[in-house]
NAD(P)H-binding protein (Janthinobacterium violaceinigrum), 337 residues
Amino acid sequence: MAIADLTISPFHRRALPLHPGCACARHKETNMKTMHLAVAVAGASGQLGSLVVNELASQCAGHPGTTLAAITRTPERHAAWQAQGIDVRWGDFDQPQGLAAAFHGVGRLLLISTNVIDGTGRRIAQHQHAIEAARQAGVVHIVYTSFLQPEDGKRSLLNDDHRATEALLAASGIAHTILRNAFYQDLLLAVLGAAAVDGQLRTAMGAGHVSYVAREDCAHAAAAALADGYSGNRILDITGPASLDAPALAAIAARLFGKPVEVVHLDMDARARHFITSGMPAPMAQMLAGIERWLATDAMHIVSDDYRVLTGRQASPVPAFLHAHRQQLLAPALPPA
């Protein structure tokens, strides 16, 4: 789907009712106007944001007159984007007074969730600032990068801020697409790196399953949701093609490493200690151990076909990702050159 082809998509899995103030006729009218408005990525400097900007830039290259804006706290770092004709703008979710100006002239906005996970409510406030600024600027549609939401009773700190942000979007009156992304496959590099050394996959995830997804696939999904012109409200689960438990990961790693890999189940405290002895800072070690313990509830087992329907692509499987990063995984196990 080219970014200039802003037609209304028939794809509306788990489509939500429009806000009472948003009549269908009004959405069709504003959808036509988005052809003359910018498509913007807020949080453009991050790993996901950069991937989305670069993909959209390649689409824009064949469509003169299409405006792509990249909103970031560090516009001075992106001279290369500016040279490509991308409108690089300053914007900071912690400074709401300037956000409406950053979103001026934007029709469709990608709101990438911030990485503040501290339980203080700061991330919710950041997202609220962005949504309110988008409303003030007249943004027609917001695409928000959320997180897989498990059934009730399996909530965590990782989910709560996203639940709150989804509620803010529902109350905003702005049409929106919510992309509930699974855990990135990148996390497996830290989990399996030690297994390459000693043949032991240590984990606190018990019998839990996870549908790990490639970060690049999440970028493809975000770019597609921005470009398809959909004008209603929808929720999409962006997952990998399979849900894997620890034994399945160990089997994949064994084939990749060419040696047996044993699953070693640990409690959360022991897992945190292992992360720390591997050189990880204690706060991060405790957080990751806690996440693994939460995964033992099977909260992240969801597998969805939404990615394929949205993008027309097949989601990348875990073995392909690990094979592409084989040298990085094996580096600790290789003798010095």
User: Anything to note?
Assistant: The beta strands are 15-16, 38-42, 68-72, 87-90, 106-112, 141-147, 175-181, 200-203, 233-238, 262-265. The chain is about 45% helix and 15% strand. The two ends are 46 Å apart (CA to CA).
